């Protein structure tokens, strides 16, 4: 037994020696890495030499691919709109060398070419996707280059994807040649559509109310009518931007109370001029036990900033009224009547501000959300015009003149979008008309919306071959013949007579309108996913669901949150202006596509945001 134990021990020792011999010795690279890991050598800040350092992070099982790294860097530059020269910065190259010792420095020309390759590859993918969509709605937005005084147009496409999600993609940034007339803009848009091969898919074009845009959309409508039939005879083709209208209305209001706004602005500035005045004001706030804690000085170029300043100051109106007793040098006294005007103006501007918040709470809002908000604007102006106060009636008259031009062109689309919201259908539309118009006018407008809705639906039925155009007035005829062919022996008897009596003329739209409204259990109206509802009912409403999502994807605004509140136009920064038009387009379009691909939100640059000074009141 003892001999067996000794033999087994000897065998185990031989196995250990054999295994140790099989072990691979560390390579000279691994040995060098272990040695250098003990210390890191940093290049002096003033050094102009290449960074020859060893990375502390090395994966010996993965081969470094410089070509792949260039593609990734191109994605990064496009996503965040970095200048191409960033890859030549010394700190950036030091960082990359520390991350991977095999990284090789890239020039700005090389990365620019790589960005163009990425742009072309992504464009090809998007072109394939656009072939499968039914309808696409466009928004056009003008940008100006202050350096070269050039005009550019950003063309964005809005559509529904195969998952019934609303999608937005920038399709082009095109240079508009002088003299920047409507026909020049129309030609630029048409060329862009031909490049994407979607000229026969365009449903609507949304633009602001400029005279050149009216001419542009009119010419484009005529050109596209030659290429293919526009839905509803193109009567819904031109959509006027509601954000642009709100800007005009807000400026109308603020111009009427310019002197009051100047006094409020001077009052807030006076309080902020020294610690003494701020302390005096704070003591009064504490004595009156007010809950508000801040004042705001506005940036006059942004009307929402002015609205915030007025609404904040309004909370301290009692303090301002008594502040002169404590501070004799305060000379911007605002009267009680003026504060009442400020209060009413803030109520109106709050409605306008809520519309901008739609795009803040919902990244890509469907048209029904804007429809509700624009109806609120119409109602506010109607009530204001009935005010007993002469000042507000005069203000309302001026604003209604601006708003009615928009309402005349866009109200039909607004109400169609509302009807296609299963939570309201025609109920909300009828209630709204009855509050704003006389009984006769309300009935006429309701009938117009209904007739338009059915006419568009009939075109969709023909489009999807549900019935021929000659059968558009009798949807159920085909179903009767289909049922009867299995009962040919009964065609002339009681069975056929019974089938003839059955009400089979109802279309999907008829059935949708006759059914009760959808009861939504969501606490917020913005939480309801209307596209998801239509997706879940697509088998029940095979044609109507397609029509609904096409209409609901129409953008009623051409701008997004921060731009919505700007009183001025959009300006291209100096870096983009210095690039060639093709390169500029690649950066704008490619950046948009990649941000959506990676789920990255564009960060607004500081100069694009309103400048507000907040005063803390303890």
Automatic annotation (TrEMBL):
Subcellular location field: Nucleus
Keywords: DNA-binding, Metal-binding, Nucleus, Zinc, Zinc-finger
Occurrences of domain HAT C-terminal dimerisation (ranges): 508-594
GO annotation, cellular component aspect: nucleus
GO molecular function, one term: protein dimerization activity
Composition-biased stretches (Basic and acidic residues): 1-10
Domain hAT-like transposase RNase-H fold residue range list: 362-460
Keyword Iron: no
Name listed for the protein in its UniProt record: Zinc finger BED domain-containing protein RICESLEEPER 2-like
Organism: Aristolochia fimbriata
Phylogenetic placement of the source organism: Eukaryota, Viridiplantae, Streptophyta, Embryophyta, Tracheophyta
